[in-house]
TrEMBL record:
UniProt organism field: Leptospira wolbachii serovar Codice str. CDC
PANTHER family to which the protein is assigned, alphabetical: UPF0102 PROTEIN YRAN (PTHR34039)
Entry's family note: Belongs to the UPF0102 family.
Protein name in the entry: Uncharacterized protein
A Pfam family the protein falls into: UPF0102
Highest taxon, organism lineage: Bacteria
GO terms for MF: nucleic acid binding
Length: 115
């Protein structure tokens, strides 16, 4: 379990660095509520990016985007709406739900607006 936690921590660090490098401002990391979590919330050009980070070995036989089933999407939306209640100033921003895939070679693949 520690290995998975460490891989996730490293992956989120790489993802945050990547987002910074393309001009995003990181607002929150691991924004958690009892019903779900957004790994990274960032801002750029009037868009609020809610990103799920997956440090994933593609040899598992499927792509991490397949993890975005309806339950996952619903939880991410619910956490996003809770964020809007906490910080109403974000209400005017356009939301974007994203996947940041960290490969076994530590390459960053950013999939924007996946749902």
């Amino acid at each position: 379990m520690r290995e998975k936690t460490e891989r996730g921590r490293i992956g989120e660090g790489l993802a945050a660095s990547y987002l910074n490098s393309i001009g995003h401002t990181i607002l929150f990391r691991n924004y958690r509520k009892a019903f779900g979590e957004l790994d990274i919330i960032s801002f750029k050009d009037g868009v609020l990016y809610c990103s799920e980070v997956k440090a994933w070995n593609e040899s598992n036989g499927f792509h991490p985007i397949e993890c975005f089933h309806e339950t996952k999407r619903s939880r991410m939306r619910k956490v996003y709406y809770y964020l809007l209640k906490e910080i109403p100033a974000f209400y005017h921003l356009t939301p974007s739900f994203n996947l940041i895939h960290i490969t076994e070679k530590k390459e960053v693949r950013f999939y924007s607006s996946i749902f």
